[in-house]
Amino acid sequence: MCDLLILNGTLLDGTGAPPRLADIAIVGNRIVAIGQLSGLSAQRRIDATGALVCPGFIDAHSHSDAFILVDPRAVSKISQGITTEICGNCGSSAAPRTPQNRLPSDWESQTFPGTWQSVAEYRRLLDQVQPAVNILLLAGHNTLRAGLIGYENRPATPDELRILERHLDVALAEGAGGFSTGLIYPPGLFAPADEIQFLASVAARHGGVYTSHMRSEGIRLLESLTETLAVCRATGIHTQISHLKTSGRPNWPLIQPALDLLRATRREGLPVAADRYPYTASCTDLDVIFPDWAEEGGREAILQRIRHPVLRKKIRDELLTSRTEDSWGAITLGSLTHPDLQQFRGQPLPLVAEALKLAPVDAILTILDRDELRTSAFFHGMCENNLKTILAEPYVMIGSDASLRAPDGPLSHDYPHPRAYGSFPRFLRMVLDGHSVPLPEAIRKMTSLPATHFGLADRGRLAPDLAADIVILDPLTVRDCATFAEPQALSQGIRSVIVNGTLTWHEHQMTGQRAGRFVSPNRSAVNPG
């Protein structure tokens, strides 16, 4: 007797092998058999006729580590077929934290079900809320550095480096899966390369991963990529280039030399990979465009500069110098918190500036001042052809670069990038319509590739004795529905999602059953990705 039997599906096992017709038997949280199993008795049967049956998708770049505590249903992720999220990216993680940390503004505004500081405390709280998805947590460099050094523009002292090492050691010992940087954000942008390499070596000792939002994804892309690959070369750590891209039209030709660098590094046998979302617009805090000096000291210090006439003019002048006149049109406002600014959500900056009767640069300064830096924006600066080229690289996996959301509840009120709801179905639709890699390779990119690279030995494939994380989808109807005009829209075509043997999404809705868990790397059972 098995607990769940999936019958008549077309299996894509995650390895890149061709599809085949087969059934899957599940007992508890494991797959126990694959084959012609219609004669088995089962407590529940799912007829997958006409559907694709795949390993649960792994979101290789997620920011759900705080939001999963707020809404553990993870509706926007589960409804895409995501069963595991790699969290704590871009240098910002929910743990370990101290009272000195500045939480991202969208996290800071939430009410949490308890308090935590260490990774161990975070794990206990995660267990308490019973998440729908599995969570692998990276320890964020910005979180660690802000908790010790604050937002000062200086290198860490030798004593501070030893303390950072100790804090990272503890986080990794408590289950963190690696170390992440966000080198365009304060305070990470103030850290020299040798600090990053030193801390990556700490993560390497634990078999962890190093993921990096690099210092530049535009004009200094190649220099930033070289810095990141040097970390991999020096430490041997599994290294992940976060949301690989070429931002800004003048930088689009950098795609080929960047890929040449990555391919050459992989030919050396070094474990470097990358992730990407299938959109040509990014999303982050609007103040990311500020010069580095203006970001020093944390939120209150930045606001004081904006409100100081001389410093405001200096910021304004540098923004005008660093950006072309037409680049303002590539910015669309996302979430805003001030009630008087809600009307501008989803609006292009030039239209907002016109409504405010201001130049675009002054509109930005005015909005950030009034919204107290709690404004996100979409930056439409990438090339569709480059996107397809990047997604076709065999070491590039899919990452939403988004926190979870839900159409109802506490996470339904902001204005996210549509990637929060649509990344994986969007990529699948591209593939099924013949605009990307073959389907078996696409499934590998979303399953066994990230599982191997991040050390999740028992996930990412359909095989006996592995975790029963499974997606059943309709190849004819699967597609994303979220847009920049209507971002809080569920995708279509995901029939069923099973997490650790538990049917969590079925017939277009949550079942009310959640079986996600905190997961950590197991390097002894995997090879480099």
Short description:
With about 525 residues, this protein is of the alpha/beta class.
List the helices and strands and how they pair.
Layout: E1 2-11, E2 20-27, E3 30-35, E4 42-47, E5 52-55, E6 57-59, H1 67-70, H2 75-78, E7 82-87, H3 105-108, H4 119-129, E8 134-137, E9 139-140, H5 141-148, H6 158-173, E10 178-182, H7 193-205, E11 209-213, H8 221-235, E12 238-241, H9 255-267, E13 272-276, E14 281-285, H10 299-307, H11 309-322, E15 331-333, H12 349-356, H13 360-370, E16 376-380, H14 384-392, E17 396-398, H15 419-432, H16 439-446, H17 448-453, E18 470-473, E19 494-499, E20 502-506, E21 509-510
Helix pairs in contact: 6-7, 7-8, 8-9, 12-13, 15-16
Structure write-up:
- There is one protein chain.
- The protein has helices at 67-70, 75-78, 105-108, 119-129, 141-148, 158-173, 193-205, 221-235, 255-267, 299-307, 309-322, 349-356, 360-370, 384-392, 419-432, 439-446, 448-453, and strands at residues 2-11, 20-27, 30-35, 42-47, 52-55, 57-59, 82-87, 134-137, 139-140, 178-182, 209-213, 238-241, 272-276, 281-285, 331-333, 376-380, 396-398, 470-473, 494-499, 502-506, 509-510.
- The chain is of the alpha/beta class and 529 residues long.
- The chain has two domains: 57-280 and 381-457, Metal-dependent hydrolases (TIM Barrel), CATH 3.20.20; 288-378, no CATH class.
- The model is unreliable at 525-529 (pLDDT under 50).
- Strands 1, 2, 3, 4, 5, 18, 19, 20 and 21 form a nine-stranded mixed β-sheet that branches.
- It has 17 helices and 21 strands.
Task: Fill in the keyword field for this structure.
2 domains, 6-stranded parallel sheet, 32% helix, TIM Barrel, 9-stranded mixed sheet, single chain, alpha/beta, 17 helices, globular, 529 residues
